[in-house]
UniProtKB/TrEMBL annotation:
It holds the Pfam family TetR_C_13. This is TetR family transcriptional regulator C-terminal domain-containing protein. InterPro entries: Tet_transcr_reg_TetR-rel_C_sf, TetR_C. Keywords: Transcription, Transcription regulation. Residues 37-80 form the Tetracyclin repressor-like C-terminal domain.
Length: 139
């Protein structure tokens, strides 16, 4: 269900956006709304991964597939904005969403959402061509 909701969010963002930057902002706002309204117990994917430590378990494989899709789709959106390193930017946004979902579980969700949006916008404006990680992780 969570996977489907995120896919719907990305599709809606693409359909409603007037520019690539607007598409990214729609997705960020959707993630923020999702964190605030639907995740009082953290991220269901991270929670599932924690319950199944074997990386070859089907649950972990499903989590990995979802996270790879999420990162790749973010990278496509970010690339359309002209970012010099959309993969590094997407990875940073994935990590930021992870932390927002966990933070919303233990802290005030309004503060977490405001911080998520503030940080995400700064990540997008950063010159990520300098010292950008080149790992072969999620993408």
């Amino acid at each position: 269900m969570e996977d489907e909701a995120l896919r719907t969010l990305f599709a809606a963002g693409s359909a409603l956006a007037t520019t690539p930057d607007h598409a990214v902002e729609i997705v960020l706002q959707g993630i923020a709304r999702d964190v605030q309204e639907n995740h009082t117990r953290g991220c269901p994917f991270l929670n599932a991964a924690a319950e199944f430590p074997d990386p070859e378990h089907p649950v972990r494989q499903a989590v990995r597939i979802h996270r790879q899709w999420f990162a790749a789709t973010l990278a496509e959106l970010v690339e359309a904005t002209g970012s010099p390193n959309p993969i590094a930017t997407a990875r940073a946004l994935v990590l930021l969403r992870d932390s927002a979902l966990v933070g919303a579980y233990v802290d005030d969700t309004t503060d977490v959402v405001e911080s998520f949006l503030w940080t995400a916008r700064r990540i997008l404006r950063a010159d990520d061509s300098v010292d950008a990680p080149q790992g072969d992780g999620m993408l």
